[in-house]
TrEMBL record:
<dbReference type="Pfam" id="PF02585">
    <property type="entry name" value="PIG-L"/>
</dbReference>
<dbReference type="GO" id="GO:0016137">
    <property type="term" value="P:glycoside metabolic process"/>
</dbReference>
<dbReference type="InterPro" id="IPR024078">
    <property type="entry name" value="LmbE-like_dom_sf"/>
</dbReference>
<keyword id="KW-0862">Zinc</keyword>
<dbReference type="InterPro" id="IPR003737">
    <property type="entry name" value="GlcNAc_PI_deacetylase-related"/>
</dbReference>
<dbReference type="GO" id="GO:0016811">
    <property type="term" value="F:hydrolase activity, acting on carbon-nitrogen (but not peptide) bonds, in linear amides"/>
</dbReference>
<protein>
    <submittedName>
        <fullName>PIG-L family deacetylase</fullName>
    </submittedName>
</protein>
């Protein structure tokens, strides 16, 4: 298990919903911002369909604010919401265009996004939004560097940009990041999603967050760290 490359300066994390980044990746982000890296977030939706019994018109703004606070905990101040409908995110040209535009706007060296496989493991279905977002984000890294795909983006002042790497949060990783030193900041970041987590079960929010981080950022076979997060790494340029 190799460490994920860290010889870069700007990163863009792309996810489907508020709280997605906080299930492990935020602890990685905390490590990177402590290194002085410039990390930014792009969310396809506002998570408006994510809280049972709470109208989307109220839930969306609430979840946006939880995400912004959560991002601040790990040193991220730039958070974009693209406005795609929560629960019915569609993988296709419209989403790819919006994500390619974001990549051209932010010009990251490293793009981090979500696992797009059907499952997280036996019997653990990955959500439709996660699957659609993950594959579209990976495609958008290529799209962003091609002047002939979405040529209207150049007319909007967004010149092509090819990121060097994309890292996909993956249950069968090729690379890992040691988050032992930033594990607690990861817990604190997830805990900012207070209203959302309270709707999931009656466990106290911080206890719930710590339990989750113990599962998703625990030891990884072949990697010497008490807490680590795994990724599949793709290289787009040398």
């Amino acid at each position: 298990m190799e460490p994920l490359p860290e010889q870069w300066q700007r990163g863009l994390v792309i996810a489907a919903h508020p709280d997605d980044i906080e299930y492990g990746t935020a602890a990685v982000v905390a490590r990177w911002t402590e290194q002085g890296k410039d990390i930014r977030y792009v969310l396809a939706t506002s998570g408006e369909a994510g809280i049972a019994g709470l109208d989307p018109a109220e839930s969306g703004p609430l979840r946006q604010q939880e995400e912004i606070r959560s991002a601040h905990v790990v040193g991220v101040t730039e958070v974009e919401f693209l406005g795609h409908p929560d629960g019915v995110v569609v993988s296709g040209p419209a989403l790819r265009r919006d994500l390619a535009a974001a990549i051209r706007r932010h010009r990251p060296d490293m793009v981090v996004t979500m696992h797009h496989g059907l499952t997280w493991g036996p019997g653990l279905l990955n959500s439709a939004d996660h699957r659609a977002l993950g594959i579209s984000a990976l495609d958008a890294v290529s799209d962003a560097g091609n002047e002939w795909i979405f040529p209207e983006l150049r007319e909007e002042g967004l010149e092509p940009w090819t990121s060097r790497w994309a890292a996909i949060a993956n249950p069968t990783p090729s690379h890992a990041v040691d988050v032992t030193a930033t594990f607690e900041r990861g817990v604190a970041s997830l805990s900012e999603h207070k209203r959302y987590l309270e709707a999931l079960d009656s466990t106290p929010v911080e206890e719930h967050a710590r339990r989750v981080l113990d599962m998703v950022a625990g030891p990884i076979d072949g990697f010497d760290a008490a807490h680590a997060v795994g990724f599949e790494l793709f290289t787009f340029r040398g």
